[in-house]
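RECORD TYPE: inverse folding
INPUT: C-alpha cells
STRUCTURE:
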C-alpha cells in the first residue's frame, strides 16, 4: 500500500554508500523466545550509535533523555550484520537529537529493520543541563 510501513522502510535504505556509526553481528545470546533478536538489544545499540554521533558534535558529558518514535519495521535474525546509521537532526540549547536508521544484511539484501530519534542532554559534573559547546572541526 503506498505510504504504508513497507514504503517507509524502503525509503530508509539509502542508495548512497554510508558509514555506519556501529556495525555488529548479533548472536543467539541476544534472542527472544521467538528466536529473533530482542528489541532491547537493538535499543541499546541505538543509544550507543546516537552517543557516537553526538561525540562528533560535542566533547561534553552527555546523558540520554529520550528515545522517541522507535519503529521496529522487521525482525533481525541471528548472525546478521546489523548497521546503525546516524544523522544529527537538531542541536538545541542543551540537547542534541539524532535520527538512527538500522539496517540488517539478509543474504545479499539490506533490510530496514528499525528507526528511532534519540535525544541527549549535555550535563555538568552534577548532572545538570549545560549549553551545548560545539566542537570546531578544522
Ligand atoms: C536529562 C536531564 C539532565 C534533563 O534535566 P531537566 O532538568 O529535565 O532538563 P530540562 O527540562 O532543562 O531539559 C534539558 C533539555 O532536554 C530536553 N528534553 C527534556 N525532556 C525531553 C524529552 N522528553 N524529549 C526530548 N527532549 C527533552 C529539553 O527540551 C532541553 O533541551 P534544550 O535545552 O536543547 O531545549 C535529567 O532529566 C536526567 O538526569 N535524566 C536522567 C538521564 C539518564 O540517566 N539517562 C540514562 C538513562 S538509563
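DESIGNED SEQUENCE:
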Amino acid at each position: 500500500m503506498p505510504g504504508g510501513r513497507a514504503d517507509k522502510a524502503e525509503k530508509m535504505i539509502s542508495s548512497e554508500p554510508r558509514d555506519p556509526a556501529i556495525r555488529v553481528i548479533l548472536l543467539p545470546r541476544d534472542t527472544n523466545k521467538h528466536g529473533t533478536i530482542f528489541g532491547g538489544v537493538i535499543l541499546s545499540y541505538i543509544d550507543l550509535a546516537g552517543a557516537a554521533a553526538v561525540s562528533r558534535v560535542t566533547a561534553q558529558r552527555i546523558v540520554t533523555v529520550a528515545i522517541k518514535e522507535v519503529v521496529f519495521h522487521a525482525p533481525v535474525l541471528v548472525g546478521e550484520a546489523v548497521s546503525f546509521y546516524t544523522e544529527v537532526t537538531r542541536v538545541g540549547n542543551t540537547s542534541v537529537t539524532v535520527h538512527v536508521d538500522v539496517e540488517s544484511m539478509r543474504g545479499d539484501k539490506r533490510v530496514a529493520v528499525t528507526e528511532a530519534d534519540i535525544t541527549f542532554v549535555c550535563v555538568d559534573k552534577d548532572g545538570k543541563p549545560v549549553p551545548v559547546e560545539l566542537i570546531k572541526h578544522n
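NOTES: The pocket of coenzyme A is lined by residues 63-66, 92-95, 119, 121, 123, 127, 129 (CB under 6 Å).
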